[in-house]
Amino acid sequence: MIKKCSSLLITLIFILFPFVLVGKILTEDLPPKYKKWLEEEVVYIISSLEKDVFLQLETDRERELFIEAFWKHRDPTLGTPENEFKTEHYRRIKYANRYFARAVPKPGWKTDRGRMYILLGEPTDIERFIGETQIYNTEVWFYQGLAKYGLPPGFNLAFYQKGGTGEYVLYSPTSDGPQALMTSFFGDQTNYLRAFQALRKINPNLARVSLSLIPGESTRSVRPSLSSDILLQNIGRLPQKQFEDKYAAKFLLYKDIVEVEYSANYIDNDHLVRVLKDPSGIYFVHYSIEIKKFSIQSFQDKYVTRLKLNVNVSDLEEKTIYQYEGSIPLELNETQIKNLTYNPFSLYDTFPLIAGDYKISVLLKNEVSQEFTSLEQNITVPQEESVPLMSSLILGYRVETRDPTTLRPFQLGKKLILCQPNNIFRIQDKMFVCFQLLGMKSSSLQKVEVKYEIFKEDEKVLELIKKTAEYENLLSLGEEFSLQDFQPGYYQINVTVRDGERDILSEKSYFEITPLSQIPRPWTYSKRLLPLSHPSYSYILGTQFFNKGQLDQARAYLERAYQSQQNSVEFSLSLARVYFTLKDFEKTKAVLLPLLESPEPSYDSYWLLGKSHQSLREFDRAIAVYNQTLSHFGTNTNLLNSLGECYHALGRIEEALFAWNKSLEINPDQPEIKEKVDSLKKEKVLDRR
After folding, report:
1. What is the CA radius of gyration of the chain?
2. Residue 272, exposed/middle/buried by CB under 10 A (0-12, 13-18, 19+)?
3. Measured between alpha carbons, how far is 208 from 214 in angstroms, rounded to an integer?
């Protein structure tokens, strides 16, 4: 039940995301090749999400890559030359066009028999009622073996020639009824009993099918079966049940970000994201990405791969607040490779983040297999805790004791929590429920208590109440629950913080207890973090404040980082940007000047230094820096335009014109620069007069 709800929610999220609803073109506006693919070749097996995405693609190259991804996600044997699903699909289309278009003014794939044949394939058996005077030509197809897709173990489909000529149309017990199958039924067309009795005299087998397409279903009421209509609807939804279509939304979201060779190779994942506060006062975003398919390259006795990680944090206006990249080279031994054969791979990571509402996007690429996966999630990092707050729950299958002074993903105090996004446990397991309480006044802690409740459906199966005073640390709360006495099934755990009789905070989570004795726990790669005393944290937080436009906070954090490592180009340049934005140009120069002595000074160092001199009207110095920049990094319009402004301010008109004309040669579409050039030329003409 939980899994179904989660799948539905995920599907709705992707369907409702703006990026699958905007920029669509009409099918008739597609190039003929792709219009045919969409309207004829895959019309019955493409989901509405896949179609929406396809209609938003802008180039034929993107469409080709999408089609490649479409078939790849239906290939039952990846890694082999043939895609058996695709081969069988086109065989069915060819068969439908050859055998179901006879005496019909349309191609076979468009007929009802063609549609069902393409969706379901060859029937197990076909019974034909042809050439009889009292019933129209009818075929009854019998299928079995499709129960895994939610269809009955065995079922019939009936097709008949309505009126005795033309196409065989799909029969519906409720829409058509037994009377529709007979050539001469005189009487009330809504009288199913009389029609059934008449048809039963002609052909008892066909009469039974006329009331229900599901063999063995009771027809004692002599009313057409609603289950038959549900069956026909479910057959139409069969492609969505057979294959996940989330890859389509990911394809659209990342088609301009990931390399071409990756774009068709999205693999699904389970993921977990939590925001937790460190004792230092810094909030960290902890996340895990668990992927079931993990490709490794074998080289001599080694097994290697390289993962590329890209993390982006943006605010609700889509402005980037923080981003970073990482490369994870992995070398595995025989034992680890065997584990990955049966167990998923999970990446644990964490990073600091300032207060606010954000959308995080994590892109993970496997460079060996050229596959990618991703997560996107909205999160909130709390402001100052003026009111009590409670973190989301983490349900761990194992907890390890670690040094509390170190920082690792999903570590609370001394507890390193090993967890999985799907929250599945065995009866033999212990479940560790972990969370944090924030903003609690010490004076009220004696009377505040935590209540744990576990429910199976609506029945409470466990309750535990503890005083918060019994816990050593409010940033590392939790309890351990033995599952030995629990029955397999789906459960909900509620954790409520109470002040006397009043509930003040509450969080809940779902979990499953499986009857299996073994379940695949992931092989985990966990990022190692620097000690919290390292200036990198001040640098990261300062950069985030700067990107968010909170300059005073940015300056405070970046000055702290700079004072710790004044030889760091990153720290110096970031602090210089803050000073420059605050118009403190003297401090900007003081920070930047030492950078020019480094073996490989950056373009930004020269550029900001030149702009600082220019802002202070030190035009000769600015010109010297800009010329150095040109010699080191080559020509660009920004440099030439600033150089022209400095020459113009010093009255060196010819040199200003030379710089601006060079800029216009690179980019003629600069109306402001063109206006300045025209104005100077007019001034020169007037001076000559």
Report:
1. 34
2. buried
3. 9
Burial class (CB in 10 A: 0-12, 13-18, 19+), 373: buried
Core vs surface per residue 291-302: b (16+ CB within 10 A) or e: beebbbeeeeee
What is the spatial distance between Cα 582 and Cα 579, in angstroms, rounded to a whole number? 5
User: Is domain 536-688 in CATH 1.25.40.10, yes or no?
Assistant: yes
Q: What is the per-residue pLDDT across 628-647, written as a single tens digit (0 to 9) for each?
A: 999 999 999 999 999 999 99
- Residue 264: CB partners within 8 Å, gap ≥ 6? 65, 66, 68, 69, 72, 251
How many whole angstroms separate alpha carbon 81 and alpha carbon 71? 13
What is the CATH architecture of 385-516?
Answer: Sandwich (2.60)
Return the structure tokens found at 564.
Answer: 């710790």
Measured CA to CA, the distance from residue 684 to residue 190 in angstroms comes to: 97
Q: Does the pTM of the predicted model rise above 0.90?
A: no
Structure tokens at 655: 């040199």
CATH number of 267-383: 2.60.40.10
pLDDT digits (tens, 9 = 90+) for 364-409: 999 888 899 999 999 999 987 778 999 999 999 999 998 888 889 9
Sketch the domain layout of the chain as residue ranges: 2-240, 267-383, 385-516, 536-688
What span, in angstroms and rounded, lies between the C-alpha atoms of 555 and 283? 19
Instruction: Report pLDDT digits (tens) over 568-581.
Output: 999 999 999 999 99
